[in-house]
Amino acid sequence: MAGGGSGADGRTYTTDEALSRVGFGRFQALLLGFLGTGWIAEAMEIMLMSFVGPSVEAEFGVSGGAEGLVTSVVFAGMIVGASLGGFGSDRYGRRVGFLFTALVSGVPGFLCAFSPNYAFLLSLRFVVGLGLGASHVLPTWFLEFVPAENRGSRMAAFACFWSTGAVLEALLAWAVMPILGWRWLFALSSLPCFILLAFSGLIPESPRYLCLKGKTSEAMLILERIARMNNRSLPPGTLTSDPKRRVDDDHDASVTTLLLMPEETISKSNGFNEFRALWSRALIRSTLLLWFFNLATYFAYYGMVVLISDLSNSSRSCAPVGEHLMQPKDSSLYINVLVTSLAVTAKHEFPGQLLAALLIDRVGRRVSMGGMILLCCGFLAPVAVHLEEGLAITLLFCARTCIMGSFAVLHAYAPEIYPTSCRNTGVGATASICRVGSMVAPLVTTALLENCHRKEAVLVMDLALFLAGVSCAFFPLETKGREIQ
Q1: Handedness of CA 125, 128, 134, 140 (dihedral sign)
Q2: How far apart are CA 485 and CA 239, in angstroms?
Q3: What are the residues whose beta carbons fall under 8 Å from the beta carbon of 454, sequence distance 6 or more?
Q4: pTM (2 decimals)?
């Protein structure tokens, strides 16, 4: 249903006003399912390395240290791919960013099943990492179709698909590995990417991106399609790409207050303006704070993962953490990891995401993130001293619940901060920084735990969390209920 009138009376409306009018309906639900499946596919590609390591080591005759390279090269690829995918999505469109992550993750991931040697496998996993790094374009693409008033809670719901993918990969490994082996697991884990590619033509380009490029007529056709699917109507008038023009006086100002950016920040793409915009006067503070927050929280999260593994090994005091994490080479591995994945998801991932969904549109992004991170800090601090093992692990699970909730809020807040012209570039650069924290944390935490310095390991993580929580107070923008540029 198109908007009433042809715009002859001079009335115009923005993309956010149109989305608020058509609401969250059938179109967004289908989009959530489609892009959420992409998020599941990316989680499966990352999680499968928890299962194939020992088999790869045995087949190619590599050492335990070399086995770890299979995971390390994926993270290295993700650091590069996050920035490449974000830049491409801002320059050439959200669909291009989606095709990049699906193709570059799916095709090399499938070819891993035919690796003739270990070096070839490492090369393919690095390329897979490039595609996985760009997966942030999926939630960002979804965000650009969601009305402002419930954007936060819908983005928190999107985060649940990652946890679902982790559990599905554990189920697949349990069914496939003992019978068919690691090559079949590689091949089958890549299938969701090909399913997405087969149906990718059904998903339209972001109307925000089209408006940025001056293609308002194409953007209006897409908004009309959304209105028809949701059985709603667009506002009267015509779509405008100028966010300063406000005509619909019936909208609630608390919902549709515009998040304005200076003109130099949202100028048309030219050269490397997408990267330069991150350092503009309007965005540099938010960019640096996002980088610090991601580096600190991902460092703490992966440090806690190692710490839980260390505490779970009650029979060996201060033994090398590598021994704690050794994987059995029989079918019990898949059952153990499956049970662990279900337990971790049920105990702290879904509760954390539910907590985020309840808070994000009520108290705002900055308070939600800062509050949950400081609460995480409080749960983690007692683990620095000697506690009964069950109590220590319970505190760590509570800490991980809070930090998972903060990640869910972050997935909404980071893309909201940036204007459409550099949104994915900004989120991609931030994702690259968080991967650095992910890689450094196990090295630092493992070194401290192996030398019986648990107190120091916890204090380092707690300091990172405390500073991250405090940093939320310095973000210049609260985006709750605001239109995004």
Answers
A1: negative
A2: 14
A3: 307, 310, 383, 384, 448
A4: 0.77
Task: Give the angle subtended at the CA of 150 by the CAs of 145 and 156, to the nearest 5°.
Answer: 85
| Rounded Cα distance, 436 and 81, in Å | 13
Sole residue written with tokens 């490397």: 272
Q: Report the alpha-carbon angle 420-421-422, nearest 5.
A: 95
- The answer to whether 121 touches 66, Cβ cutoff 8 Å, is no
Token pair in block for residue 16: 């956010």
Beta strands in 275-341 (DSSP E): none
Q: What's residue 38's pLDDT? A: 85
Q: What is the pLDDT of residues 1-29, one digit of tens each?
A: 445 444 446 688 888 888 888 888 899 99
Q: Find, among 44, 136, 144, 34, the residue nearest to 81 by Cα.
A: 136
- 97 within 8 A of 85, measured Cβ to Cβ: yes
Cross-strand partners of 12: 238
For the stretch 458-482, pLDDT in tens is: 899 899 999 999 999 999 888 877 7
Q: Which residues contact 140 (CB under 8 A, 6 or more apart)?
A: 89, 94, 415, 423, 424, 427
Task: Report the alpha-carbon distance of residue 115 to residue 400 in Å, rounded.
Answer: 36
The DSSP code sequence of 70-101 is HHHHHHHHHHHHHHHHHHHHHHH-HHHHHHHH
Handedness of CA 412, 417, 423, 426 (dihedral sign): negative
